[in-house]
Amino acid sequence: MEQTLLITSSAAQDIMTAARQCDVETGGILAGLPYAMVVVAAGKPGPGSVQAPTQFTSDPAEDKHCLYQAKEQLGRAITAVGWWHKHPGKFSRPSSPDVSQAHCLALEYGDGIPVLVGIVNRERSPTRTKTFLAMYGVDRDGTLKTVPWEQVNDNHPSIQEALRKAPCQPEVCSEGYWNKDDFVFYQNPVGRKRITQELAQLKQAGWSVTTSRRKQDRLLMITAVRSDIKSTLILPPEYPLNPPLIYQHNKPVYPEILCRWSSLYSLHAILDSLSCNTPQTRDRS
Ligand SMILES: [Zn+2]
């Protein structure tokens, strides 16, 4: 059976109020706990959003602000679980651009959890206007599914339990995080997992691997030895977004793979390319 999404009263109220206050399309972020299927906060459109009769584009600054506030109030585990927006008339299903956008995000997050899409409609009758919220999920395959949801009190035991049990999410910051002193990708759970896997891959390929920290800046240093080849890789805090610095015989080396670096490459791929070709060494300018 499909798991019912729980939306707190305050989040549902914020959506309904924002939808009633705007005649055209409007919307905002949905913050919550993806694994527990819980939404605890809903964002407003924000000054940077585009609100038109048949279009809504959210304001990243407002989304960020909503997420920050929810994290401050309810814990670091809160993360973006999707977006809501209002549709004109009775058009209550997500449009194909809505689905493609959610699909891109589902692929980007890569955690297998569907991205939620909330659609709000207002139905006018001669006596009153009703506001409805329908919830959908878009998964990694781009499949759109209706998500049954239920409004619960903010202090509902299921919400409290979900908040208590939620695993902490790694910090996600969209701009300039690599300049922050406290940001080290391989010190958060996702980065650590990747490094552990990469080290195991190197050992499996016959490399003798030792890890240490560089004295002056505590950066992660990996020394890999196989046959008569010894390489030292120094990982920048943002690895694998940027490649490591590589040294052989105390000189930096620049294998060709670094010129087309992407986070899909690995330390193993670098060392492999170094053992296939004799790399060009050059002094640092
Ligand atoms: Zn839409």
Give keywords.
15 strands, alpha+beta, 2 domains, 285 residues, binds zinc ion, Cytidine Deaminase, domain 2
Q: In the CATH hierarchy, what is the superfamily of the largest domain?
A: Cytidine Deaminase, domain 2
Instruction: Give the amount of beta strand, in percent.
Output: 25-35%
- Would you tell me the overall average pLDDT? 83
Helical content stands at 25-40%
Q: Structural class, from helix and strand content?
A: alpha+beta
Alpha carbon gyration radius: 24 Å
**CA-based shape:** elongated
Low-confidence stretches at least 5 residues in length (pLDDT < 50)?
Answer: 170-175, 278-285
Individual helix count = 6
Major sheet attributes: 8 strands, mixed
| Count of strand segments | 15
CATH fold descriptor of the largest domain: Cytidine Deaminase, domain 2
What does this 3D model show about the protein?
The chain has six helices and 15 strands. It has 285 residues and is an alpha+beta fold. It has two domains: 5-169, Cytidine Deaminase, domain 2 (3-Layer(aba) Sandwich); 178-276, Ubiquitin Conjugating Enzyme (Roll), CATH 3.10.110.10. It has an eight-stranded mixed sheet. It binds zinc ion. Zinc ion binds at residues 85, 87, 94-95, 98.
Question: What's the helix and strand layout?
Answer:
Blueprint: E1 5-8, H1 9-20, E2 27-33, E3 38-42, E4 50-52, E5 55-57, H2 60-74, E6 79-86, H3 96-109, E7 115-124, E8 129-138, E9 144-146, E10 149-152, H4 157-165, H5 189-204, E11 208-213, E12 220-226, E13 229-235, E14 245-248, E15 251-253, H6 267-276
Parallel strand pairs: 1-3, 1-10, 6-7
Antiparallel strand pairs: 2-3, 2-6, 4-5, 7-8, 8-9, 11-12, 12-13, 13-14, 14-15
Bound molecules: zinc ion.
The site of zinc ion has 5 residues, from loops.
